[in-house]
Design a protein that fits this description.
The structure is a homodimer of 236-residue chains. The first copy, chain A, contains 9 helices and 11 strands. With 236 residues, chain A is an alpha/beta fold. Chain A has a single domain, classed as putative 2-phosphosulfolactate phosphatase (Alpha-Beta Complex), CATH 3.90.1560.10. Chain A starts with a strand and ends with a strand. The interface between A and B is medium-sized, with 30 and 30 residues.
Chain lengths: 236, 236
């Protein structure tokens, strides 16, 4: 039977062998939720880059620049890290260069995997359906917060494990833990996350609307995949 | 208000500042459960060492040698990693040199903390009562399994957070996660842990009796503390 595992933060990636595995990167608040929304609205590609400077350089070459540092927008950039910014018809067919505190790094660090997919609650069902057609093991890489484990990405990992529970075995404690947490919290994720540290961080910024949006399940039938250095929408 | 935090594995210790914090190390299956049992039965001191060779060298200097590697006993040593081995009147007043796959390393890596305590379900109440008298923040360091997160140590961290919830704030997601898991599983920890990876590892070795024992709460009024390079029983 195929296996599903979870890496709770990129700082534990050294414990995992991913070269025969499909990696699903999750940065629920808010990088991967933004990416999924962007592709649902027709964006052509997203290049994840490590630094604000790289992003700015690509902006000068015609990319739209999107950045977030410490949950804040970067001045002079075209897009921020709110998923609502990506609900814009003018983005159709554009190419975006994006850097975020946690999510983009997690994607670039997964490059050696068979495939790197971008996951969020918004495209949970699309990801699960795609994975069922594949023969490889799966690992969810939670982006976390500056190396630390966070609740929301762990809950996403648990949600995916839950959807795949008839097709994938859960052998490792990380995935068991994530799955138990999701089952415990799934009936009301907003209140389950009420005390989460990143949620408190975001609430200080007044973006409760983003939080509620990012926790909606199965909104978009979109599977972003890393091809070369760019994320594109997979044709499924 | 004082804070309680959790480091889910020693491989995430670099994210934590511990020099103004009391660290409680937990390796529930079975190193810290053995240590607590040993002190309850009158052992004088336990030196945690990193390697089997160091342990053997101390054995030649008169220490009792205790070791476990990959959940197995080491040949020629006086004690193994079953807590039942430590229920022996002949151990009273003896000094033990101990090395285990995860637990002893977690202890030695915490040396820079204000105090390093040894925690297990067996002395949960004693640890909680002692901490309430202290002014420092607390961090539970879960020993995990070769760098990976494990369920049983995470549950212990959640149990301690639960006992201390009126005295310590839980700000970080790691402690929130551990606390939620413990609340979810506390009514039947044995069945909650039934699929845990280390439990399966131990069950293959036929030591279900150890597991049930290590999950008992509040058996001993013992707080082992690191002084210099040795663990001793704290006089409280």
């Amino acid at each position: 039977m195929k296996q599903i595992d979870v890496c709770l933060t990129p700082d534990l990636l050294h414990l995992h062998t991913i070269d025969n595995t499909i990696v699903v990167v999750a940065d629920v608040f808010r990088a991967t939720s933004c990416m999924v929304t962007a592709f649902a609205y027709g964006v052509g590609s997203i290049i994840p880059v490590a630094t604000v400077d790289e992003c700015r350089a690509l902006q000068q070459r015609g990319y739209l620049a999107a950045a977030e540092r410490n949950a804040q927008t970067v001045e002079g950039f075209d897009l921020d890290n709110s998923p609502f910014s990506y609900m814009d018809e003018r983005l159709e067919g554009t190419d975006i260069a994006m850097t975020t505190t946690n999510g983009t790094l997690a994607i670039t660090r997964s490059r050696s995997a068979v495939k790197v997919l971008v996951g969020s609650f918004l495209n949970l069902d699309a990801i699960a359906r795609y994975l069922r057609t594949q023969t490889y093991d799966v690992m969810v890489l939670c982006a976390g917060w500056k190396g630390r484990v966070n609740l929301e990405d762990t809950l996403f990992a648990g949600a995916l494990a839950h959807r795949l529970r008839d097709d994938y075995a859960m052998h490792e404690d990380s995935v068991l833990l994530a799955h138990r947490l999701y089952c415990d919290g799934k009936d009301n994720l907003v209140s389950y996350l009420a005390n989460a540290s990143h949620l408190r961080r975001l609430q200080r910024l007044g973006i409760q609307k983003d939080i509620a949006y990012c926790l909606q399940h199965d909104l978009y039938d979109v599977v972003p995949v890393l091809r070369g250095g760019s994320l594109v929408k997979m044709e499924v």
